[in-house]
């Protein structure tokens, strides 16, 4: 994601120009939808979450401070929190309580996946499952490290170290993703 | 220093900050560290990149129509806001208008109340005046019409030979009136003043103006063996009669 594009979107947002929403949706829509879906695990709910998140993004655009966070970090926080709030408000928390079903990580519903997303998906295999589980618990389930330690029944120290290593492992994908992107662009 | 940075990086504060889960105090601390230490700044940038990479791994084709739903709801909200602003402006103008007219009507009401009080007062005074005059006219009628009324012709002494007056006294009704018909001209700085001595005390009956109505009857306080005087006094009248300046006396 180019910084220039980020800047452009942020400028449009500050001007209350609704082109910003189009651009945001084009560049982040699928990822944010994926995040929402990962949290609420229901397509309709995930759509509602994305819609509510975009409205929040639009209404709170003046609070975004580019010096403190990347645009994506800000978008992710809003979407993730909206999704978690949605789940809580539906009282679904007990249903959702961490059933770290391994198949869930891989069971993707092939019909909705773009080829390049599938390529990205393959990258996930490069990270060991134990790291994925910790990252998901913390990033998508809205758990604190303490909660993750209790739910996953692993010591807090291990949660911390798996988070750090897991994030470091992501670097591998980052590099690979650039190559994929390079080929994709070449193909255009 | 190095240890401090390592300890900070070892803690999970940066990860919590990334997800917006820090307390306000922690948030300030993290922001301070990011601003102060390039290593921490670098680690945070890396975390942000990693988060995006990680999240993109879960990207999922959003259903057709979601984009339209979002754009439409934002446009509706904007239109609603514009409508609200228009209503708010209209409501503000209406409020100002009502406030201004309230002030105007309140002022007018105050003014009318004041005027009303004045008119009521005037009516009361007029009423009292009218009663008094009616009473006076009634008494005049009684005096003039009653067979028991005695009539005295009063003439001025040598100081005012042309002074002519008629006194009417009715001892039964205990009423007395005087009709001053002619008053000789006086210098500018003098005036005629009328007095009555009733039951041993002197009553000031006031200054006699130029006679406008020759038939006007003036009431005199009634008393047994009362005496009326007309004196010449300095302009503006006197508190006690100047005995040497008596021009006429009326016994009644």
Features:
A: 188 residues, mainly alpha, B: 252 residues, alpha+beta, four-stranded antiparallel β-sheet
Number of helices of chain B: 5
Helix content of chain B: 40-55%
Write the H/E string of chain A, N to C.
HHHHHHHHHH
Oligomer: heterodimer
Terminal CA distance of chain A? 17 Å
Shape of chain B: rod-shaped
Give the ordered list of helices and strands of chain B: HHHHHEEEEEEEE
- Mean pLDDT across every amino acid position of chain B: 87
Mean pLDDT of chain A: 79
The rounded distance between the terminal residues' Cα atoms of chain B is 128 Å
Helical stretch tally of chain A: 10
β content of chain B, as a range? Answer: 15-25%
Helix content of chain A: over 70%
Strand content of chain A: under 5%
Give a verbal description of the structure.
The complex is a heterodimer of chains A (188) and B (252). Chain A is mainly alpha-helical and 188 residues long. The longest helix of chain A has 32 residues, at 156-187. The radius of gyration of chain A is 17 Å and the shape is globular. Chain A has helices at 3-14, 19-40, 43-59, 71-89, 93-96, 102-106, 115-124, 129-139, 145-152, 156-187. The two termini of chain A are 17 Å apart. In chain A, α2 (19-40) packs across α3 (43-59) and α9 (145-152) crosses α10 (156-187). Chain A has ten helices and no strands. Chain B is of the alpha+beta class and 252 residues long. Chain B is built from five helices and eight strands; from the N terminus they run αααααββββββββ. Chain B has helices spanning 2-10, 13-18, 24-36, 38-56, 66-145, and strands at residues 150-155, 164-170, 175-182, 190-198, 201-208, 218-220, 227-234, 246-251. Chain B has a four-stranded antiparallel beta sheet, covered by helices on one side. Chain B has a four-stranded antiparallel beta sheet with strand order 5-4-7-8, with no helix packed on it. In chain B, α3 packs across α4 (38-56). The longest helix of chain B has 80 residues, at 66-145. The chains are: A mainly alpha (188), B alpha+beta (252).
